[in-house]
């Protein structure tokens, strides 16, 4: 895969408000791009607003939505999509991604719920994604999500995911940790799932930590260090598809920035190692 097609490059970090002041001052060289949830930043003003503007003027950013609820039967929140479009233009944000899930039914549910894996749901969700893309006037990236139940399942997860991506003609945000978590919880082969992803559509990736409830039950928390099997799965993804931009997600139990940057640097080291090996192979 030619990495020049990507709108951002390298190893990324999710920007959380407690990190903002330090990042404005330090500008860590390990970080190639930042990700934000637009819901948390669109209305920000004052000191934080000025600091955020200082960041977006200097660094590449992407938006990762939390509340669009693509799988819901509630009306699509088109006002929010227009607000995101304006926000992205104002801050020169590269693109927008969302979860293949829903989080509303007559009001917000405050969690990402699994969409039934059915042909009917494929058409419903793909139509909503296409409408979002029409408003934003660009493709969006859709993330494979962790889930703990599959009500009304008529298709395999990867079959459903790929069908939505194909019908919507959108890009992919591949979440490495979610593949691993789901493979343990639902008993499938993580590498087989990885190999079935439409690689030519990958915009970027997420990698994160999770909580081990039991040997056969993992919870996707973004609140712990990344474990070795998840790092290995990222390495396998690079082996299969080449290097793509990869972002560290950490939402809870935030350690000091220096600890986060160690994991960002691990991503960067893996990317650099693949590039070196690739260059030697074709030298």
Short recap of the structure:
With 283 residues, the chain is α/β, with parallel strands linked by helices. The protein is built from 9 helices and 12 strands.
Give a quick set of tags describing it:
283 residues; alpha/beta; TIM Barrel; 8-stranded parallel beta barrel; two-stranded antiparallel sheet; 12 strands; 17% strand; globular
How would you explain this protein's 3D organization?
Helices cover 42% and strands 17% of the residues. With 283 residues, the protein is an alpha/beta fold. It has a single domain (3-281), classed as Alpha-Beta Barrel (TIM Barrel). The strands form three sheets. An eight-stranded parallel barrel has the order 1-2-3-4-7-8-9-12. A hairpin with a 2-residue loop joins strand 10 and strand 11 (217-219). The two termini are 17 Å apart.
What is the chain-wise order of helices and strands? EHEHEHEEEHEHEHHEEEHEH
What does the largest sheet look like? Answer: 8 strands, parallel, barrel
- Give the CATH class: Alpha Beta
Determine the strand fraction and express it as a percent band.
Answer: 15-25%
User: Helical stretch count?
Assistant: 9
Percent range of helical residues: 40-55%
Record field, number of beta strands: 12
Radius of gyration, in Å, reads: 18 Å
Q: Please, what is the CATH homologous superfamily?
A: Divalent-metal-dependent TIM barrel enzymes
Q: Quick one: overall form?
A: globular
CATH topology: TIM Barrel
């Amino acid at each position: 895969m030619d990495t020049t097609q990507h709108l951002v490059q390298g190893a990324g970090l999710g920007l959380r408000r407690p990190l903002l002041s330090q990042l404005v001052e330090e500008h860590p060289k390990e970080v190639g791009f930042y990700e934000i949830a637009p819901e948390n930043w669109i209305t920000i003003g004052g000191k934080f607003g000025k600091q955020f503007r200082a960041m977006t003027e200097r660094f590449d950013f992407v938006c990762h939505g939390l509340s669009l609820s693509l799988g819901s039967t509630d009306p699509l929140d088109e006002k929010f999509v227009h607000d995101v479009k304006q926000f992205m233009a104002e801050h020169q944000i590269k693109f927008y991604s969302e979860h293949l899930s829903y989080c509303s039914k007559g009001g917000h549910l405050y969690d990402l719920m699994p969409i039934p894996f059915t042909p009917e749901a494929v058409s419903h969700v793909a139509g909503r994604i296409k409408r979002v893309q029409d408003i934003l006037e660009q493709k969006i990236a859709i993330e494979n999500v962790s889930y703990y139940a599959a009500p009304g399942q008529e298709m395999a997860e990867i079959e459903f995911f790929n069908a939505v991506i194909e019908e919507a003609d959108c890009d992919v945000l591949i979440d490495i940790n979610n593949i691993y978590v789901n493979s343990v919880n639902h008993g499938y082969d993580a590498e087989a799932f990885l190999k079935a992803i439409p690689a030519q559509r990958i915009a970027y990736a997420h990698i994160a930590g999770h909580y081990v409830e039991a040997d056969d039950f993992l919870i996707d928390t973004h609140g712990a260090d990344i474990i070795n099997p998840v790092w290995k799965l990222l390495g396998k993804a690079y082996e299969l598809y080449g290097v793509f931009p990869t972002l560290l997600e950490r939402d809870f139990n935030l350690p000091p920035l220096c600890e986060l940057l160690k994991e960002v640097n691990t991503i960067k080291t893996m990317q650099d190692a693949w590039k070196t090996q690739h260059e030697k192979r074709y030298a």
